[in-house]
């Protein structure tokens, strides 16, 4: 009887959490899926059912394709930068700072991850400023030419990749540190006895053993990259000062279609495409982790 009462109490205790989660998380997703099938201008109560017409228009829309391409480049570029740098930093912190200062280094690395996006992007915009930015000042002091970082589409994408990588680096470092601290020390001791150097141990032992961590970090970084918005909005401005127009990204395109062009159904279809990409990446992660576990 007591066991049944405890079970009933546990069920009643978690019901409010599920209700709030369903209202805050699941209901907007379901409503977005529904709206993607309609033509709605946001200002009218009338919604015209159009089926999959919004989706068919998307893949004929050059702006959407440009936004999807830029977003994919930023996401995969940030992943390519974040994984090796964060793994190397985590290795240095783990092997070289086993002291009372280790917590300080971990905190210092993690700070960019918790800094608000807009102030961070404004600081990086100053760094990349063509006239007053310290980056161009360093380049010119070394004999190079100043670059218009934020006024060139290619260079702007690179700037956004660097900013996204900087913001996700701290989280990735902490995840890798957890992995390093759970690696078997006996393997490293055997490698040391065999004459392996620190770099050899890192490349041929740490990197393979940390594959599950690398897989997780890669998927999290990709998902963060596909949701990039504030970084492009603040950094990538055209010569007329219109924010976010030089480098169009997917979330920015969705917001413009919703609240500037009043094409809510069309923007909802873009959101469904983004959701599908995230779900596919997550499914790939679980599939690869399952295979890794089976091996």
TrEMBL record:
The chain crosses the membrane at residues 7-30, 72-95, 107-127, 154-178, 264-289. GO terms for biological process: transmembrane transport. GO terms for cellular component: plasma membrane. Residues 68-285 form the ABC transmembrane type-1 domain. The keyword Transport applies. InterPro entries: ABC_transporter_permease (IPR051393), MetI-like (IPR000515), MetI-like_sf (IPR035906). It is found in: Cell membrane. It comes from the Bacteria. The keyword Cell division does not apply. Signal peptide: none annotated. Keywords: Cell membrane, Membrane, Transmembrane, Transmembrane helix, Transport. It is a multi-pass membrane protein. Belongs to the binding-protein-dependent transport system permease family. This is Carbohydrate ABC transporter membrane protein 1, CUT1 family. It comes from Primorskyibacter flagellatus. The lineage of its organism: Bacteria, Pseudomonadati, Pseudomonadota, Alphaproteobacteria, Rhodobacterales.
């Amino acid at each position: 009887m007591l066991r049944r009462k405890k079970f009933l109490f546990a069920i009643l205790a978690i019901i409010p959490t599920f209700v709030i989660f369903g209202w805050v998380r699941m209901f907007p997703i379901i409503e977005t899926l529904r709206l993607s099938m309609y033509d709605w201008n946001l200002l009218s109560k009338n919604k015209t059912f159009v089926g999959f017409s919004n989706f068919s228009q998307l893949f004929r829309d050059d702006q959407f394709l440009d936004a999807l391409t830029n977003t994919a480049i930023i996401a995969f570029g940030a992943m390519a930068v974040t994984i090796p740098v964060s793994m190397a930093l985590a290795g240095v912190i783990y092997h070289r700072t086993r002291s009372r200062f280790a917590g300080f280094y971990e905190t210092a690395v993690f700070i960019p991850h918790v800094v608000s996006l807009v102030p961070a992007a404004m600081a990086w915009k100053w760094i990349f400023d063509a006239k007053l930015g310290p980056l161009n000042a360093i380049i010119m002091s070394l004999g190079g030419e100043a670059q218009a970082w934020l006024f060139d589409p290619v260079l702007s994408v690179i700037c956004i990749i660097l900013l996204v990588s900087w913001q996700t680096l701290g989280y990735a470092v902490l995840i890798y540190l957890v992995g390093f601290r759970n690696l078997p020390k006996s393997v490293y001791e055997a490698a040391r006895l065999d004459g392996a150097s620190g770099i050899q141990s890192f490349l041929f032992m740490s990197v393979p053993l940390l594959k599950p961590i690398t897989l997780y970090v890669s998927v999290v970084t990709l998902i963060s990259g596909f949701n990039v918005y504030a970084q492009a909005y603040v950094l990538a401005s055209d010569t007329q000062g219109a924010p976010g127009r030089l480098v169009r990204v997917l979330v920015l395109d969705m917001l413009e279609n919703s609240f500037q062009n009043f094409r809510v159904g069309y923007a909802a279809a873009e959101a469904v495409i983004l959701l599908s990409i995230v779900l596919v990446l997550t499914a790939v992660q679980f599939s690869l982790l399952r295979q890794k576990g089976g091996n």
